[in-house]
Structures are given as C-alpha cells and as structure tokens.
Amino acid sequence: MIGIKWISKLCAFAQEIFQYLSMDLENQAVYLEEKSRYRMARKKYMLLDNYEKVIDLSRRLQDYKQVFIYQVKNNQIYEAMQTAEIYELYELGAPLCEKEGEFIKAAHMYSYFNPIKAASLYKQERIWDKAANCYIKAMQWLRAIECIEHISSEELKKKYYKKIEQIGEELSSKGNYEEAIKLFTRINSLEKALNLSEQIKDENTSKILYEQLARQALDQNDIQQAAYYYEKLDTSKAFSLYIKIQDIDNAARLLINQEKWEETVYLYLKNENEDKAIKIAKEHNLHALLLSYYKEKKNYEKILWIFEETSNINEGIKYFKEENMLDYVAHLAKLLPKSSETAAVLKDIGYYEQAAHYYLLEDNKEECKNCLMLSGKTPLEIENYFFIKNYPA
C-alpha cells in the first residue's frame, strides 16, 4: 500500500512539472508566485521586464536593495529615493539624489559614508552647521572652522567653536600640540594656543601669539592687558602703555627688571611715590638724584635728611647758607666732629650765643667771650656765664 501511495505522488509531481514546463514564461512566473516561490518568480518577472512585480516580490522578500534598483529601472525616482532613505541604502541613494538635484538629501546620505562629499554639498546649499559637522567627522578641522564662520546664529556658532576647542584639548592630551595650536589659533582661543606653544618651547609661535593677543587687547581698549602681552615683545612699548594708564608700579617693575635704578627713582618721584623712590635710592646709592629733585622742589626737610644720611655735612652747610636757611645751617654745624668747627660756623651765621657755648667746650674762653659780646651780653652777664659754664646752647 505504501509503495502505491509514493508512486501516485511521484506521478502527480511529474505531471505538475510537465505542466509547468509547458507554460509560457509569464504563466510560470504567476505559478511560482502563487506557490510562494518568490525568489524564483522574481527571476521570471525580471526576464519579463515586469518591474512592478519585481518590486512587489522584493518587498515581500524584504530585499530593499532590489526594490530600489527596480524602482529606478521603472523610473520611480521619487519612490526610489524614499526607499533609500527609509531603509538606509545611503550608498545607492546618495548618487541618485545628487543626480536628481536633491542635494540636501544627497548630502544627508553621503554623510554616512563620504562626509567630505556631504560637506561639499551642504556648503553648496549654504547649510553651514551640517557642513561643519561633516568636516569634523572627517577630521578636517580647519575646513570645519571655515564653515562655522559662516553660521549666522551667534549661539550656534559659539556651540561649534566650543566643540572645536574640545577637539583641540583632546589633540593636546594626545601630544598633538602643533595641530591643537592651529585649532586654538584659528578659533581665536589664543591664550590656550599660547600656553601650548610655551609648553613645547616654540618661541616663534609664542611671539606671534603674544603680538596677536596684544593687538586684540588694544582693539578692545584693554590697555592693561595689552601692556602685559607687550612685556614679552617690546618692554618699551609695554612701559609706555603702563604709563598711559598710570600703572606706575608695573612701569617701575619693568625698569627694575632691567636694573634701570635711576629711571625707577625718577619715575616714583615724578608720580609722588617718595617712599618707594627713597627705598630704591638708598639701596643703590642714588642720593644725588634725590637731592637734585628735592632741591628743585625746595623741600628743605628732605634735603637736610639726605645730607645727614650721606654724612655730607659741609656741603649741606654750604647749600643752606646759599639758601639763607640758617636754622638748617646751625643744625648741620652741630653734627661736625669738632666743637671748634661747629662754633666757627655758628659764629659765621650770627648764632653767637650758640657759638660761645661750643667755644667754651673747647676751653677757648677768648672766642667764647667775644661771641657773647657780639650777642649783646653785658660784662656782668658774661661773668655769670663763665661762672655757670653750662649755659645752654
């Protein structure tokens, strides 16, 4: 019984095959489709150039690449582009979109496998942020920056510059300093570029960056900052800028760094910072400069101090005599080493009683008596003076 069944089935199958082979190509395709033999049926429809059927069967087979191909063959261009977009057939869809003038769609698809081509199309359409993204993806940083510069939204532009800055920091952390410096410089993050150039001791680049930072600060009317940067390039320029904004301490610091002590003292004096001027003058023996300044100002107290400080008593006496400042002469005379010298000076300026005291200290009673007489003392007063001997000066 079993053998007869199998023979019957085999005969029926042979008959079905014979019937299939006797069909024309179109009926064979229909037959195979009805039997759910979609791949075989699709081949028949391909031979028949029945693109609609090929597309339909390809959908059933989820073979979207063939759907796309036969949509193009069937001149269903829009549908083909949709298929490429929905099913991410970017390498197929991008050239078609470009050919059809759908440049934005083409750029979007190219961005997945050819970001430079995508960027070029986005630039053509003036979609600068997406062009920048594509160049960033392709590690074409400088090209990306060129696109960022065209972005009209300041907020969006700032966001992309921040992204480039982060890339620069990543490059720096990996030791790619030169590339990082280029990026920082290009996005005007000059301080970061400068820090790196100094880190790698690139003096030429550092000099250029200091110049750029200085000019930028001047453009922003930030004189203080400009002067700071010029310190590395041109100290005379930096000095002039500090003077312009009356930053005397920094101006003086530059002079001190160059050991220009006289100029430093003069600067402090000119700007009424006498304490600092005196400190520098004392440290570097520049009392003559102070003396000249105070003589011009007729500051007799300071002049007296300098003569005392330098122990230049005789010159002081001479100066104050010429100025007819006799109290100062008397003060300095009392600092002379010998009482006779003091007495002579005091007598010369008419301070007779004080001179008499100093002559008496030298036991020169004759000159002492003479000075007392010149001071208008009576003989009795003179006699009492000698008796007491400690008459105050």
Rg over CA atoms, rounded to whole Å, is 52 Å
Cα(first) to Cα(last) distance is: 164 Å
Oligomeric state of the chains present here: single chain
Note the beta-strand portion.
under 5%
Low-confidence parts: none
Overall outline: rod-shaped
The number of strands is: 0
- Written as H for each helix and E for each strand, in order along the chain, the element string is HHHHHHHHHHHHHHHHHHHHHHHHHHHH
Helix content: over 70%
Put simply, the count of helices is: 28
The major β-sheet equals:
none
pLDDT averaged residue by residue? 89
Q: Class by helix and strand content?
A: mainly alpha
Characterise this structure.
The protein is mostly helical and 393 residues long. The chain has 28 helices and no strands. Helix 5 runs antiparallel to helix 6 and helix 25 packs antiparallel against helix 26. Helices cover 76% and strands 0% of the residues. The termini are far apart. The mean pLDDT is 89.
Topology record:
Blueprint: H1 2-21, H2 25-34, H3 38-47, H4 51-60, H5 64-73, H6 77-86, H7 90-99, H8 103-110, H9 115-124, H10 128-137, H11 141-148, H12 154-173, H13 177-186, H14 190-199, H15 203-219, H16 223-230, H17 235-244, H18 248-257, H19 261-270, H20 274-283, H21 287-297, H22 300-309, H23 313-322, H24 326-333, H25 339-348, H26 352-361, H27 365-374, H28 379-388
Helix pairs in contact: 2-3, 3-4, 4-5, 5-6, 6-7, 7-8, 8-9, 9-10, 10-11, 12-13, 13-14, 14-15, 15-16, 16-17, 17-18, 18-19, 19-20, 21-22, 23-24, 25-26, 26-27
